[in-house]
Amino acid sequence: MADAQYTSTWMDLAETSFSQGYMEAGGYETRYLRAGDPDNPRKLLLMHGITGHAEAYSRNLQSHGEHFDVFAFDFIGHGYSAKPEHPLEIKHYMEHVHGVMDALGAEKYYMSGESLGGWTTAKFSQLYPERVERVVLNTMGGTMANPQVMERLFSLSMEAAKDPSWERVKARLEWLMADPSMVTPDLIRVRQRIFEQPDWEMACRMNMALQDLETRKRNMLSDADLSAISVPALVLWTTKDPSGPVDEARRIADLIPNGELAVIDEAGHWPQYEKTDEFNRLHLEFLLRDAA
Questions:
Q1: From the CB of residue 280, how many other CB atoms can be counted at a distance below 10 Å?
Q2: What is the chain's alpha carbon radius of gyration, rounded to the nearest angstrom?
Q3: pLDDT above 80 (res 61)
Q4: Which DSSP symbol is given to 114?
Q5: Fewest CB atoms within 10 A around its CB: which of 35, 140, 243, 282?
């Protein structure tokens, strides 16, 4: 994996026609990366995980932009989007998704979310199926409450928020990867710059609300919630996901009426970044199935 040390976000995007910008969505300034033809009626939303940002999908925009109007955005409380000064729960992220959809102007969307993004996607598609075509639930959260995992994630995140040193940010990113060499200097600096924002410690504490056990419990996806997801859903997991085993992914996929499972070997919590070619192939095969 020596070549990984010479990658960069710019190299990931250099051959992609994309735009970066800010827009108001649901009353919040929202930062985004966008690729593909804005006139394409097939709209794809890509949603990152906790303390993440749109660059989580920098390696996926080009391939998906060939088929979709692709919109990867920073959730509220994350990246360079607005940072509310209150604890953020799933209902707040869903309100933000509604705002993004309304700002983009389409009636229905393809949705793909990783971790927190998958949790939000699952709940959104359960409650608002009329706005959803297909969903991908990528190493999604929301079905487990492992105190050790929650404490580890909280500690790594808050330590890096209080002291966004190179080593602390690196440690937070390494949690995501099966192969630590994927955490390149460029990726560390991209996230370090976000963590250096004056309001980041406050924002991180607000988006860490879901690592509090009682808060998490009232937001969790029940078996009944999963069984009520009517749209086609791909549960995409990895063999080295730090948040939970493949058996949990299989259980989720079995509960969703139109659910199916895909597993990527030797990847962690960011398969879209760590195993890009395999992720893009599986992702597009599912999203484009039965497409006209």
A1: 16
A2: 17
A3: yes
A4: E
A5: 282
